[in-house]
Request: fold
Amino acid sequence: MMCGIARISPFFLLGGLLLAGTVAAAENASSRGDDVTGAWTVEQVVASLKEEREPAVPFEEATHSSLLSAPLIVRGILRFTPPSRLEKEVLEPYHERYVVEGDLVTFESERKRLKKSISLGDYPGLRGFVEAFRAGFTGDAAQLKQMYETALDGNREQWTLRLRPRDPAGRSMVEDIVFSGSEGRISSIVIHAADGDRSVMTLRRGAAK
Amino acid sequence: MRASRWPVLIWSICFAGALWLAATELSIHSDLSDLLPEGTTNTQRLLLTQVRSGLAGRLILVAIEGAEPDELARLSRDLSKRLQGNAQIDFVGNGAQGLSSDEQQLLFRSRYFLSSTLQADTFSVDSLRGALEKRLDDLRSPLGLLIKEYIPSDPTGEFLEILQSWSEWEAPAKHREVWMSADLQRALLVVQTKAAGFDAEPQAAIQQHIQAVFQQLRKDSSSARLLLSGPGVFAVEIQQTIEQEIWWLSVTASLLVVVFLCVTYRSVTLMVLSLIPLTSGILAGLVAVNGWFGFVHGITLGFGITLLGVVDDYPIHLFSHLTRKESAQTTMRAIWPTMRLGIVTTAIGFSSLLLAGFPALAQLGLFAVAGLGTAAVVTRWVLPVCIPAGFVPREIRPDLGRFVDGLPKARIVVPVAVILATIVLIWSDTPLWQEDLESLSPLSADKKELDQHLRQELGAPDVRDLFVVEGTSVEALLMKAEAMMPRLEQLREGRALSGYDIVSRYLPSHHLQQERLKALPDREVLERNLDAAQKGLPFMPGLFAPFVAAVDEARSLPFIDRDTFRGTTLGMKLESLLFSHQDEWLAIVPLRGVLDRTQLATAAASWGNTSVSYVDLKEESNRLMRAYRNRMMQLVGWGTIAITVSLAVGLGSITRLGPVLAPIGCALIVVVAVLKGSGESISLFHVATFLLVIGLGLDYSLFFNRREGTEIERAKTVFGLLVCSTTTILVFGLLAFSKIPVLHAIGLTAACGSLCCLLFSGLMAQREATDA
Reply:
């Protein structure tokens, strides 16, 4: 509200990826066959993400901040319900839940005895990211590349996708976002904030019920 | 013969003088608030001025619709940016503006004065520990990260607490950073003008400016529309309505009268002659009203035209009695006693308007009395001189008299009509009394509805329910307001109301600021407590040094007062919630979502504090209208007595009063029934017109009951009477079609009334004395 967003949660980024994946997969289905043996591309990452998506993934998120002498850890589950509902449930060390549905973010905290909804519109930074992903992954990756400088390293088995916002406003908050994974599975998302803080989210596939 | 020219000379000079006065001095207003009463109590007066010139009156609600949400958001942003620079506009809000960075710094620095959660306990080890743990949670959460920069200097979260408590007023939903209706169909903005809401001219300029800017921003192909609402918009629209109405009323009324006279008398000379008293009367009315009130209201003008239909009675009476045998002067002298009585009663009828104390009516009354008097005088002394010798209007068929003589045989119609009327009065569901001040306004229902709708979507207060707190000084007032806050909170929790805004939410009294300062610990104590609280938590060592320094510094800061926020958006808010009126200070607490008004009134009374009162503005204005109406009723009573007495004196007999008054009494009953039956509740304006109906009706009744010799004379009387009443009914009937409620009420009542009076007078006329 006052200072803009110092850092972006991986939660929203992942949301964007998952949401975008649903559309991307459908539109890329025809072209995927052509490129099976070729180089590993951003387009293929998107398509694979959708294909191997699971309804729920446990995660661990570590926040490294200049205010802190040690990282803060939370654990929980990410859930995705097609077509566009994404939920982050924190189970440890306390219970909290965030749900993104369309433009609306609902926040529920047991400890703070709070339940409130905000519009992404009130948080232009967040909105920018969620929309960038939604738009960027619809079909071709051209639009994504228009909003971010993308750099894909590695191969199908072990890849990292680095996104840097092209927009100066976005750059003032986020230095870059690095996704790592193997085929259609994301293993970690690291966000480097402009002020040097960093958040590392590790996903463990197949561990959730 | 020489001497008889004198009146014409004097009249010419006066007429020219008045014409010159009217041309140079005349000032015409069409602002509705000029016509509103000022209120009878101090509070009423204050509230009415606040409503008219206060903040609420200066807000224009703006909606943009008819395009995709993204396009609406763009228009909203660009419009707000462009309007921001206008010197006539204080503030534009579309949701994109938070507090400016200066304001933020000011608030941040003053947080220990302003925070309502600050207590002696806030800085204890336990409380600090709890606060620090919360900050860790914040750092872990995606939403709380927004506040990271405030953690080192404000770990107890006072600043955010302040912002949160201030944002209690429910803001509309947002899309792309700007306010939108929940369904994303409309982008919403508010514009606060410098000019008062009722000040139609600058308001019109600002609204045109907003429209023009919007048209520039809108792409040509776009279907986006701009909607404006609010008191200022209404003022402009009312002004336009009034101006249009006056235009067509004057033109149509003049045409009607002229055409009707031409058709009945088929004489241009007569037409021109009757213009002499008519124009004199209207001119006199204009000059009198302008001289007395300093301006003539548009509504008065529109009404003044109807005077054409009343004033023309006098020349017509004269014309219809002209014969070839005697001079016009002789005829005039012969009918003068009857005419004089009619003039006196009609004047008494109109003076009821003058005495009502209601500005709108007083102007009409003065206009009418001055106009009638002048027209009568001109008819009596000027007109006969101007009539060419031997001029006689067309012959009247004598059987008209016989027809009229036959009328009383059908007098059974009158009791039947009265009985029917009584039945209607008893059975109609329409409330008898119209008490809403709103009923003065010529705004259409959908405009009012749009306003309500936008207000709801914007969460803007609808300026109806208020608590008013009075105090002798700002400090005393703020302390009273602080004492009220827990009570308001109780009412909110008890669901008597859904929200309120109060000055002490933003501005604590010095006393309270002092108390809060006392809660701040010494540097050593704070450092010790903080160390203990921080134990085991992963905060960087020395992170909270700015916090310790800020608490220390707070003690040496000056107290916050009204001046601190001058020139900021917050300062503007404070101005609307707290202001001085004469020697005292007043705080206004606007309430939202009031469910049970009686509960609020009882609650306010039970607080046992005479300086706090609950005001329902609507009820207050209704009470005002009721008071005026009751006064009007008394006036009608006294007026009736005055008319009766002057009648008795004029007729020289009490027994002849009965036949003259009876038809009018019956007519009034029927008029009320017609009004009620057609779904109209009786307002102040209807009541005021009753006396006018009595005045006009007496005129008819007197002439019908006049003892006249020959049949031909009677035919002339009847013919004149028919012409008079027809013009009266025509112009008042025209007025009944006006969109301006005051004119509509007067027109309908007077037209129905004159018609009934005419009919009943004819039916109930008694002429035994001459029939013999």
Notes: Residues 309 and 727 of chain B are 5 Å apart (CA to CA).
